Amino acid sequence: MAFNRMMSELDATRAKLALFTVIILLAVDTVNPIKIFMHVFPIVQPWHIASICVVVCLYIFISEMKELLYFAVKVFFHSILSIFFREVDVIGLDNIPKYGPVIFTGNHANQFIDGVTILATCQHKISYLVADKSWKRKVVGNIAWAMGAVPVKRAQDAASKGTGVITISRAAEAGSNSIVKGEGTMFLTEVGKGDKLRLSGTAAGLKIMNILSDSEVEIETTEDVANVSEPIAFDILKRVDLSEVYAKVLDKLASGGCIGIFPEGGSHDRTDLLPLKVGVALIAYSALEKDDLNVPIVPVGLNYFRAHRFRGRAIVEYGRPTYISPSTLDAFKKGGAERREVCNELLMRIEEAMRSVLVTTPDFQSLQMIYTARRLYQRKEPTTLKKQDLNRRFAEGYKELLLRAGGNPPKEWTDIQERLLAYQKELDELGIRDRHVRRLAHETYDIEEDAGDIVLREMKVPSQLLHLIVTFLLAMVPMLTLNLPVGFIARIYAEKRRKKALEASRVKIRAHDVMLSEKVILCIVLVPTLWIIYGFVFYFCTDLDGPSIALAVISLPLFSYYGIMTAEVGMINLRDIRPYFMRLFPKNRKRLAALPEIRQKLQADLRSLVKELGPSLGEIYFKKDLNWKELQLKKRMASATQASSADDKSHEKEE
């Protein structure tokens, strides 16, 4: 990694030296090679050389168009991320193989932004598998084409409502098909072998193996199949032929290219992974079977904070790659149940690898509690890598203890949970953050009922307010003229798209995952449009000459970016001054004054509870450098052993 960084710095130095050398040569006539050449050969005119250069540039552009477009898109989205995100931290780049084909598998938590984030943070050229529905969208489809993406038709995008209602009888024996019986159904005309049924309110598709009559079909028995005694409505997902897609993907891998896949299938705003689709396993095995390529499957954890809001934060974590065991290839070649078994096993390993780079919890409230606990537990501000590691330890430890307690944790544990959530709620209501409480703890003066003047004097609120006003004034012109109109329209548009996505989805909770993507898409269109409008205004409504108008229009992106950065500085100052400003009011003053003591007591009790319960978690508590991928595997094996033991006990009781 250090060598790569050194080489990239050396390349940047060479580029800078080359640029300034060219500028010197162009600026000084006596050393300008073009002018020297024309002086030696007077017959050559400037337009001769310019014409030759134009032809060569066109040839290079046409022959390398795909590469240049990809590079341009990557540079463009680097800029987009720097505008829409306050910070994007990258972890684990060492885990990506430097050469050869790679399959990147990421969680799908932020719609189109997910692909953009991986694209901008990874040095490899990646071709994504994109839903055909997205491929056909304007802007999104154009960008996907420029990135060399492969469109994929998804069954859920063309789902149709089935006639009648159904019940399900799950097969008792493994390997047997389950039975679906219908009332008022028309299976013979509406479905075919290989199609899927999707129960109302669920996301999983149940594959049809045989059609027995208009009111009865057999479906494949999987983990998603359960007994359904009450009649329920259903959707029909038609079988989609993906052979052409697989052929394109395998060709890209065989030529050394990299593929990006989101195995969950669709974007969502849950705090845990959705069941993975089998496609990624089929692609990996097909590459090994057809081209003898054991392609590394690298998990990508996309961890967002306030993802649906402007200037949020993201952590991109690349995990250790997963490889196919070559000994399982024969089972894949046999097809049928053996192929399903090895594909499902690989899929579970991929899921474990993805969990190793994520912080997953049962719900958003639990996730918020985990983050609050981590902030209180840490003694000093850690690096991003250590933050993620500690977040994951808390999350995995929490889920393990919850599992052991059977969903009924002891009172001391629930008390800490309630206090953590109450503490965070108090911070949210006061509009401050935990770091502000740490600062308040260092204040030495007493807060009395009539101490407003003391607060003003000690905290220097007037001077800070003056600084805040000056900052906002500097940002006002570009914000009001360039950013605010677009931002206002984008917010309304994104909210409208969010509601539409929520109505159409069966897995989204609030559909916040679509909002930032929709804002970015609209801004890509509206921002240049606004600049063009201002260009016409300058041309028709001012006396500026052509070069001045061109300079003004070219400067608009810089002014817009300056407005964003300056406004952010102002917002940070506003958040920092808020605790002191609120202390001017007696009611809030008491609440703020109590927070340091509440935090200190909560921190001590939390550390005491961790010290008490931590040793029972084994390596999650004791081991300094955890291999999270191996830990997820151990966890799965332990769960399988427990399930097998429970089944044995159940059989013994029956006997």
Explain what this protein looks like in three dimensions.
By secondary structure, the chain is an alpha/beta fold. Helix content is 59%, strand content 12%. The protein contains 23 helices and 15 strands. The chain has helices at residues 2-27, 33-40, 46-63, 65-84, 112-121, 132-135, 140-146, 187-190, 243-254, 279-291, 329-334, 336-355, 364-377, 384-404, 411-430, 434-440, 452-459, 461-504, 515-541, 546-582, 586-613, 619-622, 628-654, and strands spanning 85-91, 102-106, 126-131, 150-152, 160-161, 165-169, 178-183, 196-199, 206-213, 216-219, 228-232, 234-237, 258-261, 297-305, 312-318. The protein has an eight-stranded antiparallel β-sheet. A hairpin with a 6-residue loop joins β14 (297-305) and β15 (312-318). The longest helix is centred in the C-terminal third of the chain and has 44 residues, at 461-504. The radius of gyration is 30 Å and the shape is globular.
Outline the fold blueprint.
Blueprint: H1 2-27, H2 33-40, H3 46-63, H4 65-84, E1 85-91, E2 102-106, H5 112-121, E3 126-131, H6 132-135, H7 140-146, E4 150-152, E5 160-161, E6 165-169, E7 178-183, H8 187-190, E8 196-199, E9 206-213, E10 216-219, E11 228-232, E12 234-237, H9 243-254, E13 258-261, H10 279-291, E14 297-305, E15 312-318, H11 329-334, H12 336-355, H13 364-377, H14 384-404, H15 411-430, H16 434-440, H17 452-459, H18 461-504, H19 515-541, H20 546-582, H21 586-613, H22 619-622, H23 628-654
Parallel strand pairs: 1-15, 2-13, 2-14, 3-4, 3-13
Antiparallel strand pairs: 5-12, 6-7, 6-11, 7-10, 8-9, 8-12, 9-10, 14-15
Helix pairs in contact: 4-5, 9-10, 10-12, 12-23, 13-14, 13-15, 15-21, 18-19, 18-20, 19-20
